[in-house]
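Below is a filled-in request sheet from our internal design queue. Each sheet records the structural input a requester submitted and the sequence that came back. We keep these sheets so that new team members can see what a complete request looks like end to end.

REQUESTER: design group, bay 2
PRIORITY: normal
MODE: inverse folding
CHAIN LENGTH: 116
BACKBONE (tokenized):
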């Protein structure tokens, strides 16, 4: 970790772009959840979903938020219809290396991606 990282609590901003114009899902039928798993529980995470409520939420280590800048800024589209069409409840963990989608099925492992 850098000197800045030791002296300053990083605020990570994750912007979730949930729905696109060509998405056929109805907003009320989609649940997006993100859990802060950054740096083994020592960094805060700020999340926002401009397409649902436009508000920002601060997640302390282990905290989560569900939707029915200082420091680094990363972005990842956590709902892409062609990738996530099997998802009615999408569960994600945000890590330094990128977000990981958790499948609650034995035949589907956790899949991690890189930040956009």
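RETURNED SEQUENCE:
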């Amino acid at each position: 970790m850098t000197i800045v990282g030791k002296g300053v609590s990083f605020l990570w901003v994750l912007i979730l772009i949930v729905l696109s114009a060509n998405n056929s899902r109805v907003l009320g039928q989609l649940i997006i959840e993100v859990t802060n798993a950054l740096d083994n529980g020592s960094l805060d995470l700020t999340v926002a979903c401009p397409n649902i409520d436009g508000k920002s939420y601060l997640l302390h280590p282990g905290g989560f938020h569900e939707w029915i800048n200082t420091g680094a800024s990363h972005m990842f589209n956590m709902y892409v219809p062609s990738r996530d069409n099997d998802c009615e409840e999408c569960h994600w963990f945000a890590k330094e290396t990128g977000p990981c989608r958790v499948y609650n099925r034995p035949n589907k492992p956790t899949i991690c991606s890189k930040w956009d």
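SHEET NOTES:
- The helical segments are 3-7, 81-84.
- Residues 44 and 60 are 5 Å apart (CA to CA).
FILED BY: M.R.
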